[in-house]
Design goal:
The protein folds into 2 domains: 2-72, no CATH class; 78-287. It has 2 helices and 16 strands. It has helices at 2-17, 75-81; strands spanning 25-29, 32-36, 40-45, 48-55, 58-65, 87-97, 119-133, 137-151, 157-161, 164-168, 174-194, 203-225, 228-234, 243-253, 256-263, 276-287. It has an 8-stranded antiparallel β-barrel. A 5-stranded antiparallel β-sheet has the order 1-2-3-4-5, covered by helices on one side. A two-stranded antiparallel ribbon has the order 9-10. It starts with a helix and ends with a strand.
Length: 288
């Protein structure tokens, strides 16, 4: 059996030497499967799996018994799955009024939002992790783009008046849409804890901050007046802060992730409008 294994390993090494290094190829012939990636070749013969890893001019052969070749991951693939920033997040937006977690708008009811229509979507496209204790504990950063919309529910129109953000009601119009939208580029700095290095068993928790720079603001209204439909758009900043800092927590199991963000910085410049802090609750729908 050992002699047979050595012969097969030698045949595998010969095969790897002439294989393409930048393609993915899958061949299946009864019980023989071959999978090639840039630096790893895996061959399954029955329940025996040969894993050949190339580094520079040298090759390393490992033999393992697995029921399925798809259960075998390279170290690079495994560690990538144990960082949970990359992906698409969707969420629901609301505001906290004042420095406390008070979602009652009170006298600032012109900024009260419709939760069902106030949404967030983030595209997190880059991540890099510093491992402090293997894959169990580390700190990661990255890059993402975030779009937040806030549907204002009490039919007020926002305006800038004498350097302040104020609002008024126009009884001659019927608002069909009254929405404020912001776009941000985000950079996280978060500590991450994994309970296992096996992705199918892993519970992961991340906590830290997300810094953002505002790329743009849009205020959009649709309304009817005297039976006619009108659409109004404005790209004015409405005295919003150019930057933000959010406290963030992400919790998940396997590839399933929930998150909560709270704005440590107010949405508007100090003294220009009511002190409100954005809150987003959501889920990562696609991880990559």
């Amino acid at each position: 059996m050992k002699r047979l294994t050595l012969v097969i390993a030698a045949m595998i090494l010969t095969h790897v030497g002439f294989a393409q290094q930048d393609t993915l190829k899958v061949e299946e012939d009864n019980e023989i499967k071959i999978i090639e990636t840039q630096d790893t070749t895996k061959i399954k013969i029955g329940k025996m799996v040969f894993i050949i890893t190339e580094e520079g001019d040298s090759s390393e052969v490992n033999v393992s018994k697995k029921d399925s070749i798809t259960n075998i991951e390279s170290k690079r693939e495994q560690t990538k799955r144990l960082t949970h920033w990359n992906g698409i997040d969707i969420g629901m937006n609301t505001f906290s009024f004042g420095s406390s977690f008070d979602i009652d708008a009170g006298k600032d009811n012109f900024l009260e939002v419709d939760l069902a229509k106030s949404r967030s979507i983030s595209f997190n496209m880059f991540e890099e992790k510093l491992r402090i204790f293997g894959d169990y504990f580390g700190v990661f950063t990255g890059l993402g783009f975030e779009i937040n919309s806030y549907a204002l529910r009490n039919d007020y129109t926002l305006q800038m008046n004498d350097g302040m953000v104020t609002a008024f009601k126009d009884s001659t119009i019927t608002l069909r849409k009254n929405k404020l939208r912001t776009t941000w580029v985000n950079v996280p700095l978060m500590f991450e804890f994994n309970t296992s290095t096996v992705t199918d068993k892993n519970v992961h928790l991340s906590a830290g901050v997300i810094g953002g720079w505002r790329l743009g603001t849009k205020y959009k209204q649709k309304y009817k007046m005297d039976g006619e439909k009108f659409k109004v758009k404005s790209n004015k900043s409405l005295h919003m802060m150019d930057y933000k800092m959010d406290a963030s927590v992400r919790l998940g199991f396997r590839s399933f992730t929930l998150f909560a963000n709270y704005g440590l910085t107010p949405l508007f410049e100090e003294g220009k409008a009511a002190e409100i802090h954005p809150i987003t609750l959501g889920i990562q729908i696609i991880g990559f």
